[in-house]
Amino acid sequence: MADAKKKKLTLVQQQYQELAKSHEPPRPIAMNFVRAFLVGGLICALGQGIQTVFIHYFGFDPKTAGNPTVAVLILLAALLTGFGVFDRIAQWAGAGTAVPVTGFANSIVSAALEHKSEGYVLGVGGNMFKIASPVIVFGVAAAFVVGLIRTLIEMGG
Amino acid sequence: MLKGHQSWEFASRPVILSSAAVGGPFEAEGPLAEDFDLLHGDTLMKQKSWEQAEKVLLEEACDKALEKAGISKEHINFFLGGDLMNQIISSSFAARTLAAPYLGLFGACSTSMEGLALASLLVDKQSADYALAGTCSHNSSAEKQYRYPTEYGAQKPPTAQWTVTAGGAAVVGRNDGTRNRLHVTSATIGRVVDMGLTDPFNMGAAMAPAAFHTIEAHFRDRQLPYDTYDLVITGDLGRVGHSILCDLFQRHGINIPLDTYQDAGILIYGDNPGVWSGGSGCGCSAAVTYGHLLKKMRQGAWQKILVVATGALLSPLTFQQGESIPCIAHAVSIEA
Fold first, then answer.
1. Does the beta carbon of B48 lie under 8 angstroms from any beta carbon of chain A?
2. Which of A148, B2, B90, B187 might form a disulfide with B83, Cβ 3.0–4.6 angstroms?
3. C-alpha–C-alpha distance, residues B169 and B97, integer Å
């Protein structure tokens, strides 16, 4: 991919890009892995804790406790987004906050907040899924394909 | 008067009668805070949206500049403004308030010097008595239009830059021979340079070649030695672009003394690691030039400076369509 792109460039452009590359500080990938692992793990541990609370104190069983647990995590992420803290944590944590359901909640709440100035219908309504919609579209499409494959295998079996 | 291929020399030496810079709360924490005429404690500036807040920055910068020049807005023959927003709304809406004849410009972050060059040309050719050049940018409105919602948690790489929340304006008038004034002596208009870079989180590397071409053209057209200026300053290359440009100067034998070359994107926030490579945006070169640099020149710190404002002429749409980033730079020389 990168090579195909580079072939379209002139020699001067290629030389410049190599020169520019040598001046760019690289992304701290190893550090990002560690941070994402820590924060992502922490969020999952928190989710596990919340689920345990729902099971032990609110009479849910392990299967039904999933939904209220996710709802609490979404609420927390939404509140942190509204208070303007989430993006700061995310700059530090990277994929650690983006991959769990907190990242999905943040993408919707931040877009809704941002476009409130254009009104509730066209602003909030029209834009709140701006970042989240690819996840939904391709999530549904992937689920359909996987479901189809599973059905076919079961029919064959 | 045309000099060389793409430069103007202003024989009448138009005067910068006054200049003003207005900034936001984050700029107020930076090392140049004292050089702003007005600093806001709130990024919304008592407005309902980021876009309105950005417009206020330009309106206030224009007001301050007019106040300092001792003229009213009715005296302004032409207002030359531009900004980063779609359809340059901040400038056009500020022009509505100003009610002066208006020419809207778009040069992305190079607009500050594009405006100053044209304002000086108008005054030099006796096509205006007073011309006002101004521009502005707002961190949140730029994030909203070019990147993600302001509160969205996306991690930025170390080459990214922080869009400056600031506005700057300058009033250019005729040279009546009064001493101790700042004069605009020449300008070089840059051409679009595209080295095929596509990463919008690495604008410094994309814009550095444009700055290089304009600076090279300036010295070639005017046939000046490379140590003419006490200070050569680029608009918003940041640390990455600054270091690339230093390298380019050396490789191509442009012997500008490197201790006289600085970047406004580095100056405005100093060593703050929270802005990654440095500041960017129309307001960056405008606020640093019209606030910090001209103030220092009035105090006698420098006699001659060359301001090279750099702009990345991309849109979120062209980026998504896989286009590379075309860049431009305009240079203006200011002398005491």
1. yes
2. B90
3. 15
Chain segment A11-53, per-residue pLDDT in tens: 999 999 999 999 999 999 999 999 999 999 999 999 999 999 9
Contacts of B210 in chain A (CB under 8 A): none
- Indicate whether A14 belongs to any domain: no
Judge whether B270 and B31 are in contact, CB under 8 Å.
Answer: yes
pLDDT tens figures, B64-115: 999 999 999 999 999 999 999 999 999 999 999 999 999 999 999 999 999 9
Q: Give which of B315, B207, B200, B194 is closest to B263, Cα–Cα.
A: B207
Is residue A137, in this structure, part of any structural domain at all? yes
What number is the average pLDDT over the span B276-298?
A: 97
Residue B196 sits at the chain A interface (C-beta within 8 Å): yes
Domain boundaries, chain B: 2-173, 182-335
Q: What is the ipTM of this complex?
A: 0.90
CB contact B159 to A (< 8 Å): yes
Closest partner residue to B155 (CB to CB) among A81, A91, A130 is A91
- Reference B159, options B263, B271, B278; nearest CA is B278
Domain B182-335 -> CATH class: alpha beta
Chain A positions touching B156 (Cβ under 8 A) are 91
User: How far is residue A98's CA from residue B74's CA, in Å, rounded to a whole number?
Assistant: 53
Q: Kindly state the average pLDDT of the residues B39-60.
A: 97
Asked whether residue A91 is domain-assigned, the answer is yes
| Superfamily per CATH, domain B2-173 | Stage V sporulation protein AD (3.40.47.40)
State which H helix or E strand residue A133 sits in: helix A133-156
Q: What is the mean pLDDT of chain B?
A: 97
Please count the structural domains in chain A: 1
Residue B118 and residue A45: Cα distance in Å, rounded? 61
Record the pTM.
Answer: 0.94
Structure tokens at B6: 């793409």
Whether B152 contacts chain A with CB within 8 A: yes
Which residue segment(s) compose the domain that A92 sits in? 30-156
Q: What does the pLDDT look like over A108-134, one tens digit per residue?
A: 999 999 999 999 999 999 999 999 999
Judged by a CB distance cut-off of 8 A, whether residue B154 touches chain A is yes
Cα–Cα distance measured from residue B259 to residue B262, given in angstroms and rounded to the nearest whole number: 8
B144-153 pLDDT tens trace? 999 999 999 9
CA-angle at B275, arms to B273 and B278, nearest 5°: 105
pLDDT at A5 over 60: no
CA distance B38 to chain A (A): 25
